[in-house]
């Protein structure tokens, strides 16, 4: 009987015992993979070039929009002076397989650049540190990254590192604001280049207007339908010469008066 009682007690203890729960070893526990942020890449398709015409505050704008992710500007300079290689913007563009071209920097009566010019890294002229006609700079580096800068902001040292460059001026719009003190009495045809600060560009010409009127018009509206961050005045008047190929939607287009004079250099738009 005693033996039976001991057996039953042992059986009860055995049935009531619970096996210990195994805890996971920290270094073997499952760990979710870290989430790495993807870089922000602009996947917006590049806008195809096209010719646009618009009237703003009584000024007619005829110009071409383009995207610098797909197209770039190159300087077509003539070391031997105006008309030594290119009779006009059309010839300058066609010589470089370009789809558009416009006259660019100012020059002296002897045909020398009135400021620094760089074409494929080759230097012509010299840094214009005083005249308002050199107060703005269009530039492009060896990676074809283009920009418009104030002369004092870019500086001569950095300017000389560029691959393509034209000194011109004055600036009409800077950081989306019009430049104060622009000339307000002399009306003339203008050649202009506009930039949104990113990849959108516009180059073209206007009907006769003063620089002050042009700056105010560009602040209030844009012929390119995007906000202008920088606008640079190129050589105008009798030098104004703008050509767009027939392959461009809205083209062909030519703005060159019969009394135009030959110019020293051009900006030519080519496909990258």
Features:
single chain; alpha+beta; 7-stranded antiparallel β-sheet; disordered N terminus; 15% helix; 272 residues; globular
Task: Explain how this protein is built.
The protein is an alpha+beta fold and 272 residues long. 15% of the residues lie in helices and 31% in strands. It is built from 5 helices and 17 strands. The protein has a 7-stranded antiparallel β-sheet, with helices on one face. The model is unreliable at 1-22 and 24-40 (pLDDT under 50).
Short structural summary:
With 272 residues, the protein is α+β, with helices and mostly antiparallel strands. The chain has five helices and 17 strands.
Helix content: 10-25%
Q: How many strand elements?
A: 17
Low-confidence stretches: 1-22, 24-40
* H and E order: HEEEHEEEEEHHEEEEEHEEEE
In terms of structural class, how would the helical and strand content be classed? alpha+beta
Distance between the termini: 104 Å
Radius of gyration: 33 Å
Strand content: 25-35%
Strand line-up of the largest beta sheet: 1-2-13-12-14-10-11
How large is the count of helical segments?
5
Mean pLDDT over the full residue set: 89
Q: State the major sheet.
A: 7 strands, antiparallel
Shape: globular
């Amino acid at each position: 009987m005693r033996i039976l009682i001991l057996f039953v007690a042992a059986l009860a203890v055995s049935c009531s015992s619970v096996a210990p729960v195994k805890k996971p070893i920290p270094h073997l526990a499952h760990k979710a993979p870290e989430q790495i942020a993807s870089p922000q890449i602009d996947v917006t398709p590049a806008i195809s070039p096209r010719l646009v015409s618009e009237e703003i505050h009584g000024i007619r704008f005829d110009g071409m929009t383009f995207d610098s992710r797909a197209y770039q500007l190159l300087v077509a300079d003539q070391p031997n002076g105006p008309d030594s290689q290119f009779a006009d913007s059309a010839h300058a563009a066609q010589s470089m397989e370009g789809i558009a071209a416009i006259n660019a920097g100012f020059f002296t009566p002897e045909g020398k650049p009135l400021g620094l010019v760089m074409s494929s890294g080759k230097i012509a002229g010299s840094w214009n540190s005083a005249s308002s006609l050199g107060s703005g700079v269009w530039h492009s580096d060896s990676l074809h990254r283009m920009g418009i800068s104030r002369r004092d902001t870019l500086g001569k040292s950095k300017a000389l590192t560029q691959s393509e460059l034209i000194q011109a001026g004055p600036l009409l719009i800077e950081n989306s604001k019009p430049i104060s003190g622009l000339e307000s009495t002399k009306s003339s045809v203008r050649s202009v280049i506009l930039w949104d600060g990113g990849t959108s560009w516009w180059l073209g010409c206007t009907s006769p207007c003063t620089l002050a009127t042009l700056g105010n018009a560009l602040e209030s509206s844009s012929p390119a339908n995007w906000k202008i961050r920088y606008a640079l005045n190129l050589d105008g008047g009798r030098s104004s010469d703008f050509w767009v190929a027939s392959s461009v939607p809205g083209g062909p287009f030519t703005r060159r008066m019969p009394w135009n004079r030959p110019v020293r250099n051009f900006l030519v738009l080519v496909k990258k």
